[in-house]
Structure formats: C-alpha cells, structure tokens
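Exam revision sheet. Question 4 asks you to relate a sequence to its structure. Input first:
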Amino acid sequence: MKYSDVTGFAADAIGQPGDRTFLLQLYGSWGRNTYLLEKGQVAALAAGAEQLMKEVDYELGEIAAAPILIDEVPHFRIGQLGLGWDDATQEVILTIDSVSDGDEQVVYRMTMEQLSAAARQGAEAVTSGRPACERCGLAMDSTGHACPATNGDLRNHRP
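Answer key, structure tokens:
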C-alpha cells in the first residue's frame, strides 16, 4: 500500500511511564493510519531521521508534530521501519513492515519537516519515561527497584 499525500505524522506514547504504548500515526486525505511499535523503534526512527537530514544536508523549518489520537484500532505492530530520500521529488520515503507475514508493506511519502517534527516528538516520548537508577541505569518505578548494583533481585523488574 502506498500513500503520498501525508499531511501529518506523529510518533508518541500514550499511558503512564512504565505502562506506555508507543504509536506512529500518519494522516492524509485517505484518513488516519495507526501502528504499534516498541520504544526502541521510536528511538531508532528519531536517530535515523537525524542521520538522513545530515546526509541530504537539509535545512529545516519548524513545524509541530501531529497529535496522537487513540480512537482507532492500530493496523498492525511494526516489525521494521525504513527511511529513504527521493532526490527527484525532495520527499522522505518511510517504509513500514509488520511483524506478521500476512500484512502488506506500507510506504509513505512525506516532507522532511514532517519527519523532523515526528522524530523530535518521538525522541521526547522516549526520554520522558521512568527515571533511570543512578547505579545501574535500569528504569525505576515510583517505589524504586531492586538494584543489581546493590545485589538486588531483578526477577520483578519491568524493563
């Protein structure tokens, strides 16, 4: 499936730190498409966007990322994301593959500004989670955690 008239792109999390769901949403004249993904994939998308912008030496303007709306069922869980650049059209190409073999690859074309805004939004979502323990670097709940650096027990630790 290919979509070329993206009017909004969001990469964000919903829920409370420690119990969040990460989503990508893309908007266009065709409606809104939502995908589930992992925190690490959002971080990788933000890093990939930064790298792509350096590679094409693109001067960015400032636009706001689209908001995440949660009133629909996600299309699928993302297995793999790909970023590319089309010199001829000056567009970013985002490819999304599902973790399931039965789902078709989805391709979106968007502006660099849309990618940049969503990447900034995603990077903020990734870093706004639970605080990290100063000793071991693992995420802590509001009640703390059993730190392995102080011989704690990791069996009940949530990543």
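Marking note for examiners. The radius of gyration is 18 Å.
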